[in-house]
Input
Amino acid sequence: MKIKFAICLAGIFVFMMAGISFVVAGDLERFESVKGTLRIAGGTAHIPVMKEAAKRIMAVNRDIKITIAGGGSGVGIKQVGEGLIDVGNSGRKATDDEIKRYGLKMHKFAIDGIAVVVNLKNPVVKMKKSELIDVFSGKISNWKALGFKNRGINVYTRDASSGTRKVFWKRALNKGEIIKSANFVKSHGAMKSAINVDPYGIGYISIGYLDDTVAPVSLDDVSPTLENVLKGDYKIARGLYMNTKGEPSGLTRLFIDYIMSKEGQKIVEDKGYIAVRK
Amino acid sequence: MNRFVEYQIKLFCWISGIVLISAIGVLMAFLFHKGISSLNLSLIFGETRPLDGLLLKTEVVDGLFPAIVGTLLLILTSIIWAIPIGVAGGIYLAEYCNKKWKPGFNLMLDILAGIPSILVGLFGFAVAVFLHKHLSEHIYPCFLISSLALACLVLPYIIRTTEQSLVNLPFFIKTTGLALGASRLQNILFILIPYNLSRIISGIILAIGRCAEDTAVIMLTGVVFMAGIPNSLLSQYEALPFYIFYISSDYNSQDDLMKGFGSCIILLSICVFLFALSHILKRRAALRFATQ
Amino acid sequence: MKSSIEKLAEKGFLFSAVLSASITILILSFMVYFSFPLFKGGDIAQFFTLEWNPYEGGFGIVPMMVGTGIIASLALLIATPFGIGCSALISVFSTGYFGRFLRKVVEFMTGIPTVIYGFVAIFLLVPFIREIFEKGTGMCVLSASIMLALLILPTIVLFISDAFNSVPKNYLDAADSLGATPAQKLVYVIIPSAWKGIISALVLAAGRAVGDTLISLMIAGNALQIPGGLSDAARTLTAHIALIIASDYESPEFKSIFVCGLILFIFTTLIVLVLRLMGRFKILRDR
Output
């Protein structure tokens, strides 16, 4: 107990000590002489990019604190509108109503596709769009109908505040119904982990999150890759936005400029998305 | 009752005991089997040099350090809110409260103790939103709100242990001081409380354990998965139980997952340590009664 | 001088007690304040429907209420026999080494954070359940109930074995002198005279099972349906609050979680009242 107490005290003491900043050349320079806190929340597809950027910025200047939370696009838009956070991420455009009500400013920084994914053990890596709609609405409820084992299909979906869900629902399911027994997960990462361990699951994640732990499903013979999104062949795509309430200023402005800078856009590409500025 | 039924009853009891122990055994074995290999300094400090991280020279971004510090600070702050009010409330109920009011207080505190923790979280969140709208732009779900909500959560425990430890004192202890001319307050502060301090402390430690493990409250009141070490009461923060919750669904690689198991072991150790401590103190208090 | 300090201290003590008690009232008033517009507008009926589909104006929380009920009762159903068995073992059959060890283990269990139960269950129990049923994801009513049963077992065992131990000694002596075996003592003497304690333990455990968030959020699957079987996914009221908390503060969705909160609050109050009627409310064991 005493030791823990001492650690706590040490922690508090060190709070007060000034940080040491390092001098790094490049797009990070602008952060050197500012301080403050930047709160980011919302869309979960954005998280890898935000996290990497935050890591680099905080390494340059200890006086800057960047906090990142998830929650989904709806959360990002609402919270930034209410002034609870500085940057609200969304994986969909804000609706006209939201823009008007909150005075939102959208900053599109990347383009992303949404891929249908199944477990690695699942041989069904090609589907027709009509089949996909049937699977999600529950009309096709057994993998046997698609050429896999005689097991029920476990549909995974995101909750209502997800921008991915909205885009997927519109572009992939043609606004079709999603079966009620669908399991809910809270983020892209969670969707990927869930599909990774469930041999009979099907779900959808951002292309940026695709890796060798899940198998992407091609729809109508178009596979979900960035090239196909760029060419316009793969239609389930959307922009990734950072939203601010009104014109951004101060640290928020700097952060958005950084994401749009050469280095920031490089991070976007590294994390598996299409940069909006080359 | 015939022999056979008797035998079956006995068998059933033994089976349930053994099933319970083996369930916990399997759980712990699995946890340690998976997690023990990930327990090292880089789990806590990531790529940062441990000393730099500890002295806060560099922000630790890949390790558990901010989450551990977040949890410890959270415990400390919540307890700072809860102890004075809890102990004072307990003293009131034990020594001053009249019979007419007591059932009312008891009912309120019992409900507070029984409320699902997510409701306390929801309350904290609602308060934060309310204050944000009506008081100050700078208030939003944050460290301060979380610590206050946690304090609400543990308050009834502290009040109860304090009250119980005062009420259950032997009569001669309660009256000796008064007979020697001490005032009521002096009697409480200098005789009754010190006499049973270890019992009160054990209640407080139990409360600390609850602060350490609670996830539902902080999930709603300002914990995020990346924040670094909080630099003010109004900033968001990381915490160990939330990290475990987050990793359980959002791990990106086997490595991440192993970190999850590692952090489970760390959190478990903290909680079990606090728990054992509270137990020892309680036993000591009990022994003291037994010898007098 | 002295007496003014005394008075001040007394005021301080009173203030603390009133403050603590008023938190409960404050929580209740927040729940009511946020869900009140719904009561007034008469839209309250829309929450007690089966459909949760915010896009199309469905805000029914009945599936969550049913989900909570099913998961909690199943957990209680699993935990009760084990709980009584373990308590009997501790207090009657094995008062020696094993019984003491069992009690230590149970006490240790109360110190395990809930989130750890959930975490381990995801990687240990869920895949196992999935393979057993050969359908569904393994994130289902049964998985959640099993873990929840484990979570509430310490409450049940410690409480019941205390009740067993407080059976008056002369009853036991009487039974002994009649030559009763331990099993006979248990069935004819101890359980009948400790039944109040057993019921209180179960009510208390029910409160915990309903109030727990993490287990159901992590391993019950959170599907928006009334589960039709043990292998179906379900969502509890508590998990619903955790999932919906982040939506628009003006929306009916957001307000609906305060209705959930109100329901949970009323449930807690009922449990406390029942326990008071039973005359045995030990707060410290409850979480």
About this structure: DSSP finds 13 helices and no strands in chain B. Residues 114 and 289 of chain B are 30 Å apart (CA to CA). Chain B touches chain C through 93 residues (CB under 8 Å). Chain B has a mean pLDDT of 88.
